[in-house]
Specification:
This protein has about 700 residues and is α/β, with parallel strands linked by helices. The chain folds into three domains: about 160 residues, no CATH class; about 350 residues, 3-Layer(aba) Sandwich (Alkaline Phosphatase, subunit A); about 140 residues, no CATH class. About 40% of the residues lie in helices and about 15% in strands.
Length: about 700
């Protein structure tokens, strides 16, 4: 020690009697229990501060504080002897160095991906916090100053090393910029019909029910688009727009359907890197959005605005407001007590999803929030309604008053969920009850941003409502809600179409346009049993008559919407109509499921008309579109450019890869989707 330290130590003795200058004096100056309790108490206080800073629920705050305190108690029992054993002469300096090491290195190593994979990784994080707290409690004098500096550095390091639970907008992926040569197409539009299947389309073409698809097929080329396994929408659409297998592009299943896991450049990335605007709307697997040269509106899956109440999974199905219970119904029923003919009460809708407010990131706490081990309070909406003599309902909900006739929908209503704005709609059912859609986030103030530009929707839509994913198609299990479900799906699809059209108008010089219609997929899952009843157990004739046309109705709506979209896009556009997979019966579950045979149609400038249908792979779409636009085809693509479809196209140039800096490195531990997203997918029926 230096000559100055005893004097400095004497000053600290006045405030911290437990302090000692030499290892052997500690036991004489203070009981062993106090030596162990000081780091425990300091660590407990650290846990309390973290809990308060993140506005945790009471039970979760207690859990975090106790974990910190417990870790501190354990370390208090071993730190002193360990420090004396390692450095008998300078235990405090050793403790300070340990604090610097822990707070400087551990935050960089314990990344949010690792913490998110296992709850038990929380323990090292808590131990790290306790180690620094114990070092500050035990190491005073000059060493204590070092420890305090280490803690300050830790705060700065944690602020920069950590990241939000969900990045609002991902950075644009690194792409090798390449200027296109003259191609057979000036502008390419890829329009998805999710679950599109020739076994539905062909009979409807023959009956004249799909005039816009008939025009494209008659003037271009068409065939079977062979999908890949698994046929999950985010996986397949990522392969369509990258030309790569799931193993290469990184979206291998629902559990990692997070755009940040993607390791391959998509068509809009390649086109945008050349300075050409690209537009993509409602492509599954594109959330969170990334920066693009043009505009991107993400598709599902996306986290819900609310988590389900305890013991209830169906938060994306909506809710029925009624005066009587509905035994056996899948969609939850809020039974409201009635007095003088007026039903009133508070309807619990779930727990608001609120991110931590602190800019300092506690890895363990954020992991627990992502895994829904930490939760916020239940949200409820006050509701009153009465059925009048003329059959109309007078409804008051979330501060809105309105009248609804049987079968009538309300406008989009607003609700406040712990300061987070949400929107929902009501529909009067024929039996006197009311169906409420799930609470969706307000697109102009979203909790989970889903556009590449924060002001994008406001610029193109004004105050219109946009929904990324509609209510779950499993609502169809409730017979009374089948018609409302289909109407709701149409409304959501209409709003998505309107956004796609407005973006095409607002960015008139676009070179690539992509939009996916998903209503065909939702209707096929929900109503395939009605569409092809011979593959299922017998269904009541009256019930069959109610729902048999829904699948075909979804295709008719999509064909009409396709015509409107093509009219907006204008002339001179090379069009590819695609599906990620087809549909087939799933008798075990009673729904429709996927099959690998989808559809493709190509028409417009640069497409050689063909009468014979060809089978191509979904991996061939991106190379073919790039070749049509005059871009090189990458050597690391798994698909090939189908030049036989392109009229007069030369052999395309080659490039090793479009991923910037060579092949993209694999992410050792992919970012898993949030628990609320997984619960949503389970409610939708995509995972079991």
């Amino acid at each position: 020690m230096t000559m100055q330290e005893p004097d400095l130590a004497a000053r600290f003795d006045r405030f911290l009697p437990l302090r000692t200058s030499v290892p052997g004096a500690h036991a004489a100056r203070a009981p062993l229990a106090l030596e162990r309790s000081v780091p425990a108490l300091v660590s407990l206080g650290t846990g309390v501060l973290w809990s308060l800073d993140h506005a945790l629920a009471a039970r979760d705050a207690v859990a975090v504080a106790l974990l910190h305190g417990g870790a501190g108690f354990v370390l208090g029992a071993i730190l002193g002897p360990l420090a004396r054993a390692i450095c008998p002469g300078r235990p405090r300096t050793t403790l300070a160095a340990a604090a610097l090491l822990v707070f400087g290195v551990v935050p960089a190593l314990v990344t949010r991906e690792l913490v998110d994979r296992s709850y038990w990784v929380y323990l090292p994080a808590a131990l790290a916090m306790a180690l620094g707290a114990a070092a500050l409690a035990l190491a005073v004098g000059r060493s204590g100053t070092i420890a305090l500096g280490a803690l300050c550095a830790a705060g700065v390091a944690t602020a920069f090393a950590g990241s939000p639970v969900q990045p609002p907008i991902l950075p644009a992926p690194p792409v090798v910029p390449v200027q296109p040569a003259p191609g057979v197409a000036q502008r390419v539009a890829l329009i998805g019909i999710d679950s599109g299947d020739w076994q539905v389309i062909d009979p409807m073409l023959a009956a004249g029910e799909l005039p816009n698809l008939a025009r494209l097929v008659g003037g271009g080329a068409a065939g079977v688009l062979r999908s890949i396994e698994p046929t999950y929408s985010p996986v397949a659409w990522s392969s369509i727009f990258s030309g790569k297998s799931a193993e290469k592009h990184g979206i291998t299943g629902w559990d990692v359907a997070y755009a940040g896991n993607r390791r391959a450049a998509l068509l809009w990335n390649v086109v945008g890197s050349a300075g050409l605007p690209a537009i993509a709307v409602n492509v599954p697997g594109s959330w969170p959005p990334s920066q693009v040269h043009g505009a991107l509106v993400s598709g599902f899956p996306i986290p819900s605005l609310t988590k389900p109440p305890p013991m209830e999974e169906q938060q994306v199905l909506g809710r029925v407001l009624s005066t009587r219970d509905r035994p056996g119904a899948l969609v939850p029923t809020a039974v409201l007590p009635t007095r003088d003919g007026v039903a009133s009460g508070e309807v619990v809708i779930g727990e608001a999803e609120t991110p931590p407010r602190s800019r300092l990131r506690h890895f363990a706490i954020e992991a627990l929030i992502r895994r829904e081990l930490l939760s916020s309070r239940l949200e409820a909406i006050p509701v009153r309604f009465e059925v009048r003599a003329d059959g109309k309902r007078r409804v008051e909900a979330a501060g809105h008053a309105l009248e609804l006739a049987p079968g009538e929908w309300s406008p989009w209503l607003t609700a406040d969920l712990s300061g987070v704005p949400g929107r929902f709609r009501l529909r009067a059912l024929e039996d006197g009850a009311i169906y409420s859609t799930p609470i969706f986030q307000d697109p102009l103030a979203p909790l989970h941003p889903f556009t590449s530009d924060a002001a994008l929707l406001q610029r193109v839509q004004g105050d219109s409502m946009y929904v990324v994913e509609a209510a779950g198609w499993r609502v169809s299990q409730d017979r009374d809600l089948r018609r409302p479900l289909f109407e709701h799906l149409e409304d959501v699809a209409e709003r998505q179409l309107a956004t796609a059209q407005e973006l095409a108008r607002s960015i008139p010089d676009w070179a690539l346009f992509a939009h996916v219609f998903t209503i065909t997929d939702r209707a096929s899952h929900a109503f395939w049993r009605c569409h092809a009843p011979e593959a299922y157990a017998p269904i009541d004739a009256a019930e069959l008559a109610e729902c048999r046309d829904f699948v075909r109705a979804a295709y008719r709506w999509t064909d009409a919407a396709l015509g409107r979209l093509l009219a907006t896009l204008g002339d001179g556009v090379t069009v590819f109509v695609l599906s990620d997979h087809g549909s087939q019966p799933d008798p075990r579950r009673g729904f429709g499921t996927h099959r690998v045979d989808g559809i493709w149609i190509a028409a417009g400038p640069g497409i050689a008309p063909q009468r014979e249908r060809r089978e191509i792979s979904i991996l061939d779409v991106a190379p073919t579109a790039l070749a049509a636009l005059g871009f090189p085809v990458a050597d690391d693509a798994d698909g090939v450019a189908r030049l036989e479809l392109l009229d007069g196209a030369p052999e395309p140039r080659r490039i090793a890869t479009y991923e910037g800096g060579g092949a993209s490195p694999a992410r050792d531990v992919p970012h898993r989707i949030q628990a609320s997203t997984e619960s949503q997918l389970r409610s939708l029926g995509y995972v079991e």
